[in-house]
Design goal:
elongated, mainly beta, 50% strand, Methylamine Dehydrogenase, Chain H
Length: 693
């Protein structure tokens, strides 16, 4: 009996099963871990961990090792009798969490070790400014930015060179823009770099000589080419330069006596009389039918047009549409919520649209939604239920694509019927709260601060450097800043604001310098004859400003009815405000309006206007050009239409027109009148953002 018990005990100790620490079975070895956690690792990198095996017998043991990707290990391990060995497991990180098993097998038995790891895809980290470094932090899964060490090389702003970092700022020496050409004026402008503009040489004192400029010697003069006009010219006698002398000559047959216009061929001298064909209606270069009425006028940017269509004929309620300057549709983005929208501004960063209490941005090339900022979330606690409103003239885009908007919060009783504020402010609405809203190019809200002392009709404008100016018709003019800005002046005027060429023109009367806000001049309009200054459009370029006003036309004396007032254009000196010339745009009784204006060049700087007036019960639109106090031409658009908005862009004027109950986009070529491309803030162009360009 004792012998039988001893034999059973020996058999159990050699071949029986007992509980182990892993797998529940003794397999000739033990492992020191039930699982391996590789933690977080960057995508594409490898992390190694080890599992220790301890032999439970005296004989050597061959252990088979198996696992699957993203985990790997050597396929076999030799474990010495009574000793230890380790299996190295490698985790190759992907994008996301991973888990697997390590299988250790010997003597037809297997032990499992659980494997865990997480791969993290690294963000592309770019510093937000010079003298900053940005790195990806694995644990935070975010980019962390730090200040570069002093002395590190950096790329300074355009007007500096040899940049080095000092206390987190990129400093350098002034950039030299001298091109060695005495016929250019050399300067450096932030955001543009070196600029080389043609030098202005003084006019020669001798007739029939012209100013010249040699790049090496500078200004001089030379005889004018033969047949250069040097005095009065008509179709009988022409004063022309011949061999450097001004001589009266019989005017040759076919001599051009009147220039070509967009609707009329040039005039030529025939039998001593200037013969010119009659002016005809302008013919559109293209016409595009529209499925529904526009919501506000078009905005132009980069040669492309943007506008909103809203109406029953549009299947998707409202839609954002874009066309090329040649009339080809670029994209249509439908808004499914049915809310009324209006385009406020456009730039390379996006097309900004106002919907019901929300600012939205869409890709300027694709029309895809980029971001939205609900203005309702910014309503002050004391004005819950108030409606948020803004409009063209109160929204601006910086050169970097940042959005600044003056947003009014008005009591619900005042704003219930106002809808989308696609027009020119909140005139007539009672006072509310005004915020300056600053939005990053990616839609992140940077600042939403109250503008104390400013009314709900405040306008905003940017200069070429991106500095923001605010103006309210009650008088305040301020330069906006992160601290709320600084007050520059408090003189009242009409609701108008324009920044161009280093000048701020506020209230239709006062000119200030953009550098420090010094008051430069005042434009004096007639004050005691019932005259009324139009708040816009205003134009400012080449040292001249242009504005429009209404006045009673003689023989009517003031006061007179609005319908009896004539519309006049005034040019003034932008340095001292004095009047240079005036011209009548529309006579009294025309019952018309000024739709749009622009700066053009037709031998000398001029102002193009697009007007609409009612004649014999029918509305007619006319393109006109004024220069030096004279109307140089008037070109009628086709009759039978009504303007719904227009914009000048590049070499055309584009109009949204209703004809016979249907809407269309029409384009008219300006032909021999090139537009002035500098310092012209259009109402509905990038200056719809009120920004000088």
């Amino acid at each position: 009996m004792r012998a039988l018990f001893a034999a059973s005990l020996a058999l159990l100790s050699l071949g029986g099963c007992r509980e182990g620490e892993l797998g529940g079975v003794e397999v000739g070895f033990r492992v020191d871990a039930k699982s391996l956690d590789f933690g977080r690792a960057l995508e594409g990198t490898q992390v190694a961990r080890s599992v220790a095996l301890t032999s439970t017998g005296r004989a050597p043991l061959s252990v088979e090792v198996a696992t699957l990707g993203p985990f790997s290990a050597a396929p076999q391990l030799e474990l010495p009798g009574g000793g230890q060995a380790s299996v190295e497991v490698v985790f190759t990180a992907g994008d996301g969490k991973a888990q697997g098993k390590l299988l250790l097998s010997a003597n037809s038995r297997t032990v499992e070790v659980a494997l865990f790891g997480e791969g993290v895809r690294q963000l592309s980290c770019a510093p937000t400014a010079p003298c900053r470094t940005s790195r990806f932090d694995l644990e935070a899964s975010a980019c962390l930015e730090s200040i570069s060490a002093d002395g590190a090389a950096c790329v300074p702003e355009e007007c500096l060179e040899g940049g080095v970092c000092r206390a987190g700022a990129c400093v350098g020496t002034p950039r030299t823009c001298d091109d060695g050409n005495l016929c250019t004026f050399d300067a450096c402008a932030p955001g543009a770099g070196c600029l080389h503009t043609a030098a202005s040489c003084p006019a020669p004192s001798r007739p029939c000589h012209v100013a010249t400029c040699d790049p090496l010697s500078g200004c001089g003069e030379a005889p004018a080419p033969d047949s250069t006009p040097c005095g009065p010219i008509d179709c009988v006698t022409a004063n022309l330069c011949i061999s450097g002398q001004c001589r009266a000559q019989p005017t040759p047959e076919g001599f051009v006596c009147a220039p070509k216009t967009p609707c009329q061929a040039e005039g030529q001298c025939r039998s001593k009389v200037c013969v010119r064909p009659d002016a005809g209606e302008m013919v559109p270069s293209f016409t595009v039918p529209l499925p529904s009425p526009p919501s506000g006028g078009p905005i132009a940017h980069g040669g492309n047009l943007f506008f909103e269509l809203c109406g029953a004929a549009a299947d998707a309620g409202c839609q954002l549409r874009s066309y090329t300057g040649g009339g080809f549709e670029r994209f249509t983005t439908a808004h499914r919520d049915g809310a009324l929208r209006a385009v406020l501004a456009a730039s390379d960063a996006g097309v900004v649209v106002l919907s019901s209490g929300q600012l939205e941005s869409y890709g300027p090339a694709s029309g895809q939604p980029l971001w939205s900022v609900p203005l309702s979330s910014l309503v002050p606690a004391s004005m819950q239920g108030a409606q948020a409103l803004t409009s063209r003239g109160r929204v601006a885009l910086s050169p970097a694509g940042e959005l600044l908007a003056a947003v009014s919060f008005l009591p619900a009783a005042d704003s219930a019927d106002s809808g989308t504020d696609a027009g020119r402010g909140d005139a007539g609405l009672s006072a509310g709260v005004l915020l300056l809203v600053h939005v990053a190019p990616d839609g992140g809200l940077l600042v939403a601060q109250p503008l104390l002392g400013m009314g709900t009709e405040s306008l905003i404008a940017l200069d070429e450097a991106g500095r923001a100016f605010l103006y309210d018709s009650a008088g305040p003019l301020a330069e906006a800043g992160a601290d709320g800005g600084s007050l520059l002046d408090s003189r009242p005027g009409v609701s108008s604001l324009l920044v161009a060429g280093g000048r701020v023109f506020a209230g239709g009367r006062h000119l200030y310098s953009t550098d420090g806000g010094a008051r430069l001049a005042e434009v004096r309009w007639p004050e005691d004859g019932g005259e009324r200054l139009l708040p816009e459009p205003l134009l400012l370029a080449r040292g001249r400003g242009y504005g429009f006003y209404r006045a009673c036309e003689p023989p009517l004396g003031p006061p007179c009815a609005e319908a009896d007032m004539a519309l006049l254009l005034r040019a003034f000196d932008a340095s001292d405000g004095r009047t240079l010339w005036e011209a009548m745009v529309m006579p009294g009784g025309a019952n018309g309006r000024l739709e749009e204006s622009a700066l053009g060049f037709f031998g000398s700087p001029g102002v193009l206007t697009l007007t609409e007036e009612e004649l014999s019960g029918q509305k007619e639109a006319h393109l006109q050009l004024f220069a030096e106090g004279k109307r140089l031409f008037v070109c009628p658009l086709p009759k039978g239409g009504e303007l719904g908005g227009a914009v000048f862009e590049r070499s055309s004027v584009y109009a949204l027109v209703e004809r016979g109950g249907s809407w269309r986009l029409e384009a008219y070529e300006l032909g021999p009148v090139p537009l002035e491309g500098s310092g012209w803030p259009q109402r509905h162009g990038l200056s719809g953002t009120r920004r000088a360009r």
